[in-house]
Each structure stands twice: as C-alpha cells, then as structure tokens.
C-alpha cells in the first residue's frame, strides 16, 4: 500500500482547489468530466463555470436547444461532446425521471460516457470502487511499474485496467482516483517531470532505468490529414450568407460561410478554382481574396482562405442549408473558432 499512501499524501498537500472537488453531485461531476476531456483545466474551467451558471441542474441542460449549447461550447473544440451531453441530459429526464445515475452500470449506458468517465462519476459521487484510467493514470502506472505494453493496444488496455483496479483503495476510492490523476497532471508530467522532488522516485522503475522519456508507449495509428477550405463572404443589405453544417464532419451543426474544399491551396488566377466558383455563384461573379489562416485540430491541419464575392448569384434550391442573417445574429450562432477570428479581423481591419 506504500504506492497508494504516497500518492494520497502528496495529493492532500498539493491538490488544486477546483470547484467540482467540493461536491458529490453527479451532474456537476459529469459536467466537469466531459468539458475537461481533451482539454486543459485552465482552458476548461471558464466553460465549466459558464455551463453550471446557465444550467444549474440536469433538467435545465435538457431544456436547452442545441444551438444554445453549441454557442456556449464555442471555442472548446470537439463539438460532438456538447451534442452528446444534450442527448444524455434528455435521456436522463426520460429514463431516470431527472435523477442523475451514480452507479457505473447505469452511467456506462449514457451517450458520450465511456469507461473512464463512468468510473470517475461513480467513485466521486457514490464511492463506488471503480478505478479511473485516463492519460495521466496511464503515464504514472507505466513509469512507476515499468510497463512497456502500448497503452492504446488491446493487450495494454487490459493490462493497465487490471492493474489500476487492483490498486484502488476500497475504503476511499474517490480520494485515490483524484490523487493519481492529479499526480500525473502536476508531478509526473509528460515532459520534464520533476523527479527530484517526487515521493515515488526511489521505487520508480522508469527513473531507475532511465526510461522517463520512453514510457508510456503508444502506437501511432492516426495520420494527420491536410485540408484546404475556401470560404466566400456574400453580403446583401447588412446581411451575410451563412450555412449550417449538417454532414458528419468537423464542426457539425455549427454555422459557417458557403465554402468550397479543394485538394490544394486555391488561387484566384487558377482556372479550375475560378470555374468551380462560377459554377456555384454564377459566371459573372467577382472574387476578391481577403485573408488566409491556419487551423490545427487533433488529426487535421486546415488551411483556410476567405474570399469576398461581388456580382454573385445564390441558388437556394441547391443550397438548402444557406440563409441570410445579420452580422449581430451571426454572433449569436455557434460557429467554428476560426470564423470568429476572421469576423473580429473583418470588422477591425
């Protein structure tokens, strides 16, 4: 038990004062866990506070519209999380009469709730002895116990899951889970961990065998994709043409401008590109370059160009998701972060 005791002792002396650690309300814990997926605490905390203020109970969240949720989510990325949360909140109202479940077996059935999130909510809200296993925990266990099995392999997931569960403190699983996650986030960091002041340094396999930079091992399975998106600004009587993204792609259900995606960077003097624009907006359209930007997603690099159009034609029969909105109304709609940056430039140039 020395490993667990050292972790909890370190945690009690070094833990951050975070609002979701002062409650056992499963709704509040769920809110924090989903918002913090793929997100640093510093970035996610303002969103957590805004969501909790706007929707203090799961019934309030369930009553919101998708547009309201996505607007509040704007800038946080991974927008499917927000859509899944709305589905889940409504699911809880229908299946559980608005009472947020606290058992692992019920939580794991909810949309957007995986094994880690179900374990976190159940242990933090009801003291269920389910071990959490996130990136921080993988790293601590791999380094301390010297496990080289890739964490994203089938064998690795099984090995780490069994080890994590065997280490859980049956008397206070919430404290232990918080401790090991916080230890990975603050002490046993991915790069340049401060091993000299680590309470586990004497028995850490990775430190004693100079494997800190090597562990944990992760298989590289996802290739980064490069995309080129060209947006067109069509203005008319203080309104601008916008498009709601309905396909299963990045930024689903967010609003952006009419666009053409190309295989390479587009240029106004490139005949193939200009012909495609003319097919979409009429033979007499005039194209004016405005701005170029680069946007990074987890597995995508997106090069974006913005063009202003004059003398264009809009065929609404071919663009059923297109609509005219005023610039102030567009500000109230959820939109990709890169569009917000462009709009801020557009009105302050």
From TrEMBL:
> Is Hydrolase found in the keyword set?
yes
Q: Which cofactor does it need?
A: [4Fe-4S] cluster
Catalysed reaction per UniProt? Answer: Hydrolyzes free adenine bases from 7,8-dihydro-8-oxoguanine:adenine mismatched double-stranded DNA, leaving an apurinic site
Q: Tell me which domain of life the UniProt entry assigns to the organism this sequence originates from.
A: Bacteria
Record has DNA damage as a keyword: yes
What EC number(s) does the entry state?
3.2.2.31
**Assigned keywords, A-Z:** 4Fe-4S, DNA damage, DNA repair, Glycosidase, Hydrolase, Iron, Iron-sulfur, Metal-binding
Positions the record marks as coiled coil are none
Task: Check the record and name the Pfam families matching this protein.
Answer: HHH, HhH-GPD, NUDIX_4
What family, per the record? Belongs to the Nth/MutY family.
- By its UniProt entry, which PANTHER family does this protein fall under? ADENINE DNA GLYCOSYLASE
Q: What is this protein called?
A: Adenine DNA glycosylase
> Whose protein is this, by species?
Pedobacter lusitanus
């Amino acid at each position: 038990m020395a490993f667990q005791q050292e972790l909890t002792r370190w945690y009690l002396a070094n833990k951050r004062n975070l609002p979701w650690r002062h409650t056992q309300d499963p709704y509040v814990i769920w809110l924090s866990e989903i918002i913090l997926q793929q997100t640093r605490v510093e970035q996610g905390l303002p969103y957590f506070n805004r969501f909790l203020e706007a929707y203090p109970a799961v019934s309030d969240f369930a009553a919101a519209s998708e547009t309201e949720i996505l607007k509040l989510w704007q800038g946080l990325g991974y927008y499917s999380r927000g859509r899944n949360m709305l589905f889940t909140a409504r699911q809880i109202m229908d299946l559980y009469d608005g009472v947020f479940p606290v058992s692992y077996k019920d939580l794991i059935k909810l949309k957007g709730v995986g094994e880690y999130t179900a374990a976190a909510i159940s242990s933090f809200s009801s003291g269920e002895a389910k071990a959490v296993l996130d990136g921080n925990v993988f790293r601590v266990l791999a380094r301390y116990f010297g496990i080289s099995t890739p964490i994203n392999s089938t064998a690795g997931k099984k090995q780490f899951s069994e080890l994590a569960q065997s280490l859980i403190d049956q008397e206070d699983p919430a404290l232990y889970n918080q401790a090991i996650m916080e230890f990975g986030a603050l002490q046993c960091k991915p790069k340049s961990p401060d091993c000299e002041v680590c309470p586990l340094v004497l028995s850490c396999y990775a430190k004693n065998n100079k494997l800190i930079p090597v562990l944990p091992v992760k298989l590289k399975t996802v290739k980064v994709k490069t995309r080129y998106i060209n947006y067109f600004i069509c203005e008319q009587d203080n309104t601008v043409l916008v498009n709601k993204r309905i396909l299963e792609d990045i930024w689903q259900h967010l609003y952006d401008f009419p666009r053409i995606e190309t295989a390479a960077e587009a240029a106004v003097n490139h005949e193939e590109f200009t012909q495609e624009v003319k097919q979409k907006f009429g033979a007499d359209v005039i194209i004016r370059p405005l701005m170029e930007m680069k946007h990074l997603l987890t597995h995508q690099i997106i090069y974006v160009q913005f063009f202003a159009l004059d003398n264009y034609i809009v065929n609404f029969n071919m663009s059923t998701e297109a609509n005219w909105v005023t610039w102030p109304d567009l500000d109230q709609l959820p939109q990709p972060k890169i569009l917000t940056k462009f709009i801020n430039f557009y009105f302050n140039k």
